[in-house]
Amino acid sequence: MGIIQTLSPELINQIAAGEVIESAHSILKELIENSLDAKATKIEVLTENAGLSRILISDNGVGMAREDLPLCVKRYATSKIHKFQDLEHIFTFGFRGEALASIASVSKLSIASGMEGERVAYEIKTEDGKVTSEKEIPHFVGTRIEITDLFYNTPVRRKFLKTEIGEEKKNRTRLQIMSLAVPNVGFRYVQNGKVVLNLNPEPAFERVLSIYGENLRDHLLAVSVERNGIRLHGWISHPDFYKSSRMSQFFFVNQRSIELKFSAQILKRCYGELLPSGAFPYAFLFFELPANFIDVNVHPQKKEIRFLSEDTISGLLFQGIQEVLRTSTPVEFLEMRRRLSMPIPYVHGESNLGEEMGLGLAATLPYREHFSLTGISPGINLNLLSETPTKHHAFVPKKHYGIIFETFILAEAEDGLYIIDQHTAHERIRYEEVLRDLKEKAYKTQVLLTPIRIEMTIEEAEEALSSKEALAEIGISIEPFSGGTILIREVPSYIDPGKEQETILDFLERRKTRHLEEKQMFDEMAKCVACRSAIKKGDMVSDHLIAELLQRLSFCENPSLCPHGRPTLIKLSRQDLEKMFHRI
Ligand SMILES: Nc1ncnc2c1ncn2[C@@H]1O[C@H](COP(=O)(O)OP(=O)(O)OP(=O)(O)O)[C@@H](O)[C@H]1O
Ligand SMILES: [Mg+2]
């Protein structure tokens, strides 16, 4: 007796739904794409219980005819392609004719739709993928789809879903990302009765700010390049504005949000040293290319696509980012001066600026025997300083000889030549200063006459407000304003003026909702201030300021490492030099 049977169409649909419908957010994606394909300019979405109890989406698109309604929930039924060749110039989001069939197989569905010029509209209802009713309803133009009891017949899938809050967040994120690609379309999203997104049609740049916060406005650099019929445009953040995860990098190809596997590497290469480690720039980048340059039919949820020439795309991305970073305004000298001219704690009386910087004590710094320069005979060590904290005055510069490669300060001390990274060194200085201020509560707070408004996503604002008390302990007072907007009312003196917003945002980002002990909190904040206020590679620094920087570094508890563990200085001892030149 044979054991093989053909699966029933219902079961086939449920299996297929597993690939397309991961959760409510994948339904939102499919439905919004359908609305966009129907040329809607206004899309309203409503979810209850993260979409598991109810999803309602209405659009003002072209609608469907009476005969099309029962067909739209059938598998492989589509109005978007007719023959295989159509796939080569696809400009619609959908083409497989399976989304609605999949959704219908795992939920109860009601679809109402009307077309212009008609007298009435029509509605169908489905259960287990089968049409259970069809009727006429009062006329309107567009489509309204209601989904109830998602996964009622596939309880295992339901069990795999994350918490409701997690799913709600995914839904919001999905809408936000999709709306970036179509700024000319208005979106309204009501979650459990609360409006969480309300976007009118607007220019693309404004759309980015509407979603990710007005505070990004002055920190975005426009990217625009074109080659061989492929255009790349959008925005990346200035190196002074970044996040601690890759979550704010978005790529679109012909308006479709996709995962670009080479993007992370390219961004990293382009920003390089401009960003501290663990920092990720924002990116909102849109490719426009002829439809026959891509194959969209490679991923069940169309998250990835195949390019005819991946090298052209990655090359254009590299060129676009590189160009704008190279030409973006360097930090002004005055700004530099301000950053460096913070008071020097622990130095009494006149500070010893200029050439005579000897403070008396010669350093004895530990060696790292096996670190040798390639090409130079072994035994001559270029010593990276020890990672164990060194004592005060371990590094005592006497003279400096300026900056090489726009980054490294050359300084002479009693015991050798030091090469100092201006960025990491300044980070170390600010880190220790801020940490000390925080521990000793040696800072003042200032109530701002005009509070700083920070616009962010609703969930970021909620997260920030849940940290309100913790922030108050370190001199920062924030308040809710509306939706995704919060106000900073009071700021502490240890944050550099003008850097409040980005430093606080950075701190919130690192902290997220986890609870930090006081000590960790001080440490995190000190790192954020250090990162945000330190001079960068390539920043112009005057002789006078170099001297000041070196002096302040010599007063650090651990002058040899930046707060993130990168070296701030390396030493070529007098003895090494003498050995190199066969003097000893
Ligand atoms: N909001 C809508 N307005 C007008 N027509 C719609 C709408 N949603 C669906 N349709 C019609 O129903 C058909 C089936 O939709 P469905 O999403 O299942 O497939 P598709 O969009 O063609 O392809 P894919 O499975 O790749 O999304 C569409 O081709 C379209 O003709
Ligand atoms: Mg579709």
UniProtKB/TrEMBL annotation:
Keywords carried by this UniProt record: DNA damage, DNA repair, Endonuclease, Hydrolase, Nuclease
One Gene Ontology term of the biological-process aspect is:
mismatch repair
Segments traversing the membrane = none
Top-rank taxon = Bacteria
InterPro entries listed in its UniProt record: DNA_mismatch_repair_CS (IPR014762), DNA_mismatch_repair_MutL (IPR020667), DNA_mismatch_S5_2-like (IPR013507), HATPase_C_sf (IPR036890), MutL/Mlh/PMS (IPR002099), MutL/Mlh/Pms-like (IPR038973), MutL_C (IPR014790), MutL_C_dimsub (IPR042120)
Q: Which GO terms describe its cellular component?
A: mismatch repair complex
Q: Select a single GO molecular function from the record's annotations and give it.
A: ATP hydrolysis activity
Q: Which SUPFAM superfamilies match?
A: ATPase domain of HSP90 chaperone/DNA topoisomerase II/histidine kinase, DNA mismatch repair protein MutL, Ribosomal protein S5 domain 2-like
Q: Where in the numbering of this chain does the MutL C-terminal dimerisation domain appear?
A: 400-541
Q: Which Pfam families match?
A: DNA_mis_repair, HATPase_c_3, MutL_C
Q: Where is the DNA mismatch repair protein S5 domain?
A: 208-326
Sum up the protein's function in the record's words: This protein is involved in the repair of mismatches in DNA. It is required for dam-dependent methyl-directed DNA mismatch repair. May act as a 'molecular matchmaker', a protein that promotes the formation of a stable complex between two or more DNA-binding proteins in an ATP-dependent manner without itself being part of a final effector complex.
Query: What family is it from?
Result: Belongs to the DNA mismatch repair MutL/HexB family.
Which PANTHER family would you find in this protein's record? DNA MISMATCH REPAIR PROTEIN MLH, PMS, MUTL (PTHR10073), DNA MISMATCH REPAIR PROTEIN MLH1 (PTHR10073:SF12)
UniProt protein name: DNA mismatch repair protein MutL
- Gene it is expressed from: mutL
